[in-house]
Amino acid sequence: MGQNQLLDELKQAALFSRLDQPSLVDLGRIARVRRTDPEEVLFAAGDRATGFFVLLEGKVKLYKISTEGKEYILRVVRSGETFAEAAAFSGLRYPVFAEALEPCRLAHFEVNEFRRLVQRSPQLALNMIATMAELLHTLTAKIEDLSLREVGARLCRHFLELAQQEFGTPKDGQTLKLETTKTALAARLGTISETLSRTFRKLQQNGLLRVERNRVTLLDCRRLRDVAEGDLKL
Length: 234
Prior knowledge:
This protein is α+β, with helices and mostly antiparallel strands. The protein has helices at 3-11, 21-30, 85-90, 111-119, 122-148, 151-167, 182-188, 193-205, 221-228, and strands at residues 32-36, 41-43, 51-57, 59-65, 71-78, 82-83, 97-100, 104-110, 175-177, 209-212, 215-218.
C-alpha cells in the first residue's frame, strides 16, 4: 500500500478530515499499519493504553464482560472511524476489549508521538474535541434507548441505523448481515435472547422484516421507523 493511499484513508476519519496536506504527511509518518484476523483481540480491558487506532478496513467490536461472564457490546467500529482515543490520552488503561469481527487493517498511533504532533497542530486538537463530543452524543443516545424505549423500538432503530451506515438511506428490500450472534445483539440492546427472539418473530409476522440465518431484509421501512419512534406498537 502506498503512502498516498494511506493519507487518503486517514483523511476520511473525522479526526483528521480538516487537516492540510503537510499535517497529513506528518501524521502518516507516525502511523503504524497492521492487519488482524477475525476474532483477534487488539487489546483487553485493563491493558495499559499506549495508543489509539483508525480502522481502515473491516469491523471491530468494543465490549465489556460482566462478572457473570456475559458480553456487552458497546460499539461496532467501522472503516474510517477512530477508537481508544479517550483512554490513550487520559494515560489510564483501556476500559473495554477490542476484537476484530472480520479481517481488518488498522493504523495505530502511539500516544506520545501523537501528542507531539497535536502540539504543532491546533486544528488537530479541535478535531479531537469534535470527535469526542460526537461519541458522547452517541453514548447518551444509547443510554436513552436502553432506559426509555421498548425492545422492539430498539431493534428497529438498530437495523435502520445499520442500513443508514451501509447504504446511505434505508429502503425496502435492503439486506443486512448480522455483525454478531443474536445473544450478543440481545446484550447490546439491553435484553435477553428469549425476548429478542420473540421480537424478531413479531416483526416478521407483521411484515416488517425477513430473517434468514445471519441476514435480515428490511420489508417496510416506514413502519420500522414508526416502531423505532414509539408511534406504532408491535
